[in-house]
Amino acid sequence: MENFKKNIKDNFEDFYSQNTSSDVLNNFRKNSFSSLNSLGLPSLKDEDWRFTDLNDFYKSAFKHRIQDNKKFDSALIPESLNFSDVTFIYLYNGKLSHFDSIENVKIEDLESYISRLDSNEFEEIINGHSEKNKDFTFEMNSAFLKDGVYIEVEKNIKLKKPIVIINYYDSEASFVCHRNVINFQDLSEGQIVEYTFSDDDISFLSNKATCFLLGNSTNVEHLSVDESNKSSYILSNLKISQKKDSNFTTDTILIGGKLYRNNVHPVLNGEGSNSNILGLYLSKDSQHMDNYMFVEHIKPNCGSRQLYKGILKDTSKGVFHGRILVHNEAQKTDAKQTNRNLLLSEKAQVDTKPQLEIYADDVKCTHGATTGQIDNEALYYLRARGINLEDAKLIMIRSFTEELLEFISSNFILDLHKSFVEKWFLNSQLAKSE
């Protein structure tokens, strides 16, 4: 662990000496690194990390690189994302490469945009997140804040086409930090897709964050898919700040990574706001996927739904730790948290921990978790109707994933979700190509 601390310290000193930006941004980086040191590195003794052993991770050494301006080769885009009726934004090792322009939408390199902000604007755009869930992964991302994209959808604008953000890691990715900030102004609507993938033969650390700022009466649907290779370490944060009457649905599909920490933190800070937090973690071999949900209700008359499902093969391991915090002002909160897991082998393992912390007295909050294998009675029912064993199992596994689709209204996101899940079934030899 001490070697890892030194590795991060050396990387930060090199990074800070090579990056002279605005005083506001420079101070933010220094303060974030100081906060990172104060928090310390997590271990199995920390409640929020008690199911994830980081010892092997801490033995790794990573070198942060200042990324060059590279042109992304669109031929690398998977066929499942090869659409003509979407707006593409390309990131190369986390750095904005190029993008399609959109009327009434600002798209800009993150550092270029935030370097022009005064301290009040910076606080609102970059540092306006809740202090209730400080985590070393996000503080590290803040300390190395530079690369990524800033997107702002103007007031009253409804995006005509989905925005698809492609992020690709190549052989020069060793230690990459980047952040996407997506700002929907009042009464705007749209669909955002983030797709991450990498070269197959590299080992790297990605510390990535996406921060949504949702104005009054906004309506946003989001899909995040990560197919990074299985030698990678992924530390991911999704932060959502919601104002009055905003509606947000996010759907996360985890496929890649040797070790994956997926933090999701929506803050319902406007009366009448609603948040659907959906996720599917698909693990095999010896992958480890740790999902930490922290849903924070601050204002009254808000609703949230967490539905996370895991399918685990081989010797892989999954973690779900879901926490709902209801502040004392958040009366009439309606919050539900559900985690369900399907184990496809005797050695696959899941640890799940639902948690409620309620300080208001007029609320409806429920949580539940289940873990099991394929139901033999249901399997027998299908076999009795002439369906062979492998097809019967696949029908049941597919059915297990489909509950998530009930909360997604965008046909574009629905089709993408199904496409990536089916691809994993094929790659995992659960389904056969036709």
Summarize this entry quickly.
The protein is an alpha/beta fold and 434 residues long.
Q: Give the C-alpha Rg.
A: 21 Å
How much is the average pLDDT? 93
- Structure classification: alpha/beta
Number of E-type strands = 19
Give the DSSP E fraction (strand runs of 2 or more residues).
35-45%
The biggest sheet, with number of strands, parallel, antiparallel or mixed sense and barrel status, is: 10 strands, mixed
Residue stretches low in confidence (pLDDT < 50, at least 5 long) are: none
Give the oligomeric state. Answer: single chain
**What is the ordering of alpha helices and beta strands?**
HHHEEEHHHEEEEEEEEEEEEEEEEHHH
Q: Provide a count of the helices.
A: 9
Ends distance: 48 Å
Shape: globular
The side-by-side strand order for the widest beta sheet comes to 2-1-5-7-9-11-13-15-17-19
Helix content: 10-25%
Verbal overview:
This protein is α/β, with parallel strands linked by helices and 434 residues long. The chain is 22% helix and 38% strand. The protein contains nine helices and 19 strands. The chain has helices at 2-18, 23-39, 55-58, 110-114, 119-125, 136-143, 376-383, 389-401, 411-427, and strands at residues 87-92, 95-99, 105-109, 147-153, 163-169, 175-184, 189-198, 205-214, 219-227, 233-242, 247-254, 259-268, 274-283, 288-297, 303-312, 317-326, 334-343, 349-358, 364-372. Strands 2-1-5-7-9-11-13-15-17-19 form a ten-stranded mixed sheet, covered by helices on one side. Strands 3-4-6-8-10-12-14-16-18 form a nine-stranded mixed sheet. Strand 1 and strand 2 (95-99) form a beta hairpin. Helix 2 packs antiparallel against helix 6 and helix 7 (376-383) packs across helix 8. The longest helix has 17 residues, at 2-18. The model has no long low-confidence stretch (mean pLDDT 93).
